[in-house]
Amino acid sequence: MWKAFLGVVRKRCSLVVHVLDRFHVAKLLSEAIDTVRRDELRALRGSGRHVVLKNSRWVLLKNRATRTSKDRSRLPDLLGLNLRSVRACLLKEECQHFWTFKS
Fold this sequence. Notes:
Layout: H1 3-12, H2 22-47, H3 57-61, H4 69-79, H5 84-95
């Protein structure tokens, strides 16, 4: 997914289908969630409500299977707040269905 690599492939092998692997797609999704969370945290700090997202990074970034009981108990509180960070996390979880899809 390196831009230089994609450019060379596009130039020299224009008919090749580029397939993205699970690791890199998950990495991009996690980076996007973390960016949204940081931006939202900055905005909440300005309004004095930053405590809402404090210590929530790993709760949002971990996969459902790897969340601890503490993470799982914290998630309902975050879900009730309807934050962009939480919606991004839910979208990431919805993308997990792509890996089990059969055509």
